[in-house]
């Protein structure tokens, strides 16, 4: 199995977290709910990469966010894709949620309470990734 490092950012505002629905144009987990995520590039640390992904996928900049927590990496095995995802989770506070502007990677987004993650068809390991940063 191939090991692939990815980042996932949970943006929080007033006790809710941002969930984004992956579009039909992405390579995996189409139409599943997720945080902001992406592959960790070789020349980037997970923290550097998560900031890149946040900017690309939501239009938010570093000044819009406050890093609250970086969680321990989580291994998520996906036998169908023959991958072990090593998820590096982060939690950021977002003061102005109306500034979120999604790109082509997502078809919609919503703010939910963390306990509502289980009510959504999410990418594998999302709830466990959240537990590492709550």
Describe the fold and architecture:
The longest helix is centred in the middle third of the chain and has 13 residues, at 46-58. It contains two helices and eight strands; from the N terminus they run ββββαββββα. Strands 1, 2, 3, 4, 5, 6, 7 and 8 form an eight-stranded mixed β-sheet that branches. It has one domain (2-131): Nucleoside Triphosphate Pyrophosphohydrolase (Alpha-Beta Complex), CATH 3.90.79. The protein is globular, with a radius of gyration of 14 Å. The mean pLDDT is 96. The chain has 134 residues and is mainly β. A hairpin with a 2-residue loop joins strand 1 and strand 2 (16-22). Helices cover 14% and strands 41% of the residues.
Total E-strand runs: 8
Q: CATH H-level name... which superfamily?
A: Nucleoside Triphosphate Pyrophosphohydrolase
Supply Rg.
14 Å
Number of domains: 1
Major sheet size, sense and barrel closure: 8 strands, mixed
Shape: globular
Q: Uncertain spans, ≥5 residues at pLDDT below 50? A: none
Question: Helix tally?
Answer: 2
How much of the sequence lies in strands comes to: 35-45%
CATH architecture group name: Alpha-Beta Complex
Helix and strand sequence: EEEEHEEEEH
Structural class: mainly beta
- Helical proportion? 10-25%
Assign the CATH topology: Nucleoside Triphosphate Pyrophosphohydrolase
Distance between the first and last residues' Cα? 29 Å
Mean residue pLDDT: 96
What is the CATH class designation?
Alpha Beta
